[in-house]
Write a structure and sequence with these properties.
two-stranded antiparallel ribbon; 2 strands; 11 helices
Length: 304
């Protein structure tokens, strides 16, 4: 087994062959290191005596990830800016290092997620008028085509204003209130679950907690960058917002796959399929939130 220098620490190149005769993967050695994965000092206790990094005793399963939730939300003692900067150009590396035990340099994944979701909501708040106008312009042709003059007038009365504009306001308010939950429960978590099952079918065994860490970091990068691009596109051309956001998502899907997952075509295909399924789930949840908000608005208007 050969060695390589990375960040001043000598590390083993993962070309070993396991007892089963298959090439050894980096994840196979989690919890088995005899030295610190950060500084290389001998491992003699739960925490490294040289740099303070906590040594992982076993791989991160779902139970371990869930137990870590409470402490992960409010811990800002690690490098937030460093983590997001690293996520921009090598999200797969950040996730891999965190899962393999090199956690000290990085902000925890759930903290990153909520920070990025907050940035996305703040971006929508800043661009509230422009977003409302853009969404209203998209609603207007469909409403004019689908509704008769009497139905349009009745809807105007129920909503208390111009239907496209009022529906756009309802949509924006619903997104502000439910965006974080929808992105977590219907995007990041489904992506992690489908990715975990798909990679196992491709012959790569990952724990659910490990793929959740990967999905959290990747989605965090997506949300933060689209929060920035939303401000730019709405000031230049609102019609560019959706295609640019999709391009950002695809960039991070491509960048995050390696070195966390294998480079094979089948493994990459699983990542893209899992992304498509989870993105569809995310959009469906947004539509459900919007439909519920419109229904509540109409019912409250009728009762009034």
């Amino acid at each position: 087994m050969s060695n390589s220098e990375e960040g001043g620490v000598t590390r083993e190149v993962e070309t070993a062959v396991s007892a089963s005769g298959h090439p050894e993967r980096w994840s196979d050695r989690i919890g088995q290191h005899t030295s610190c994965v950060v500084c290389g000092a001998p491992r003699c206790s739960e925490y490294c005596g040289n740099c303070g990094q906590r040594h992982l005793k076993q791989r991160i399963d779902f139970r371990a990830w869930a137990c870590d939730l409470g402490s992960s939300v409010l811990q800002f003692d690690r490098g937030v800016l460093f983590t997001f900067a690293s996520l921009f150009y090598r999200p797969g590396h950040v996730a891999r290092e965190y899962v393999r035990g090199n956690q000290k340099p990085f902000t925890k994944p759930l903290t990153c997620f909520f920070l990025a979701a907050t940035a996305q909501i703040f971006s929508l708040w800043l661009a509230g008028d422009a977003v409302t106008e853009s969404i209203g312009d998209q609603f207007r042709p469909s409403l004019n085509q689908a509704l008769s003059e009497d139905s349009y007038a009745k809807l105007r009365e129920q909503l208390g204003g111009d239907p496209p504009e009022e529906l756009a306001k309802v949509y924006l308010l619903a997104i502000k209130q439910g965006y974080s939950y929808a992105a977590l429960l219907f995007f990041a978590v489904p992506w992690a679950i489908v990715q975990c099952l798909g990679q196992r079918s491709a012959g790569v065994c990952f724990r659910l907690g490990e793929t959740i860490v990967w999905a959290m970091y990747t989605v965090s990068a997506m949300l933060l960058v689209t929060a920035i691009t939303t401000q730019l596109t709405l000031r230049v051309n609102a019609s560019l917002q959706a295609p640019i956001a999709l391009a950002v998502y695809c960039y991070f899907v491509w960048k995050s796959h390696q070195p966390f997952f294998p480079a094979g075509i089948r493994s990459r295909l699983v990542t893209w399929v899992a992304f498509g399924i989870s993105l569809g789930s995310f959009f469906a949840s947004i539509l459900a939130i919007f439909a519920t908000a419109v229904l509540v608005r109409l019912l409250s208007g009728n009762s009034g």
